[in-house]
Amino acid sequence: MINNDLIFEVTEGMTKPPRYLTESELLGLMDKNGIGTDASMATHINTIVDRHYAEIGEGRRLIPTKLGIALVHGYQITDNELVIPKIRQDMEASCT
Question: Does residue 6 lie within any of the structural domains?
Fold first, then answer.
């Protein structure tokens, strides 16, 4: 059955990258993926900021630095699985 009442509008535009994660959003993703404990998750975020892999921007968003981007690219070249949550999740599960 075809619904002839549907109306579509085509507009021209440019794609935009997704917004950077807030600290809160990152903590939620870490929790969802079993990365860290309640006591250690905030410490992980402080560490990436202290090591200049990311900066805290407006709205508490984590903005990657050139160093942070280079680190991720290096991990991707070495072994892409190093940058996906599954590996860290498995490591955390092995430790518990």
Answer: no
Query: What global pTM score does this model have?
Result: 0.72
CATH classification at residue 35: 1.10.460.10
pLDDT tens track for 22-41: 999 999 999 998 888 888 88
Residue 18 CB-density burial (10 A; 0-12 exposed, 13-18 middle, 19+ buried): exposed
18 within domain boundaries: no
* Domain span holding position 87: 23-95
Here the contacts of 31-37 (C-beta below 8 Å, separation 24 or greater) are 33/85, 33/86, 33/88, 33/89, 34/89, 34/92, 34/93, 35/85, 35/88, 35/89, 35/92, 36/92
Query: 47 in helix, strand or coil?
Result: helix
Question: CA angle, 93 as apex, 46 and 33 as ends, to 5°?
Answer: 55
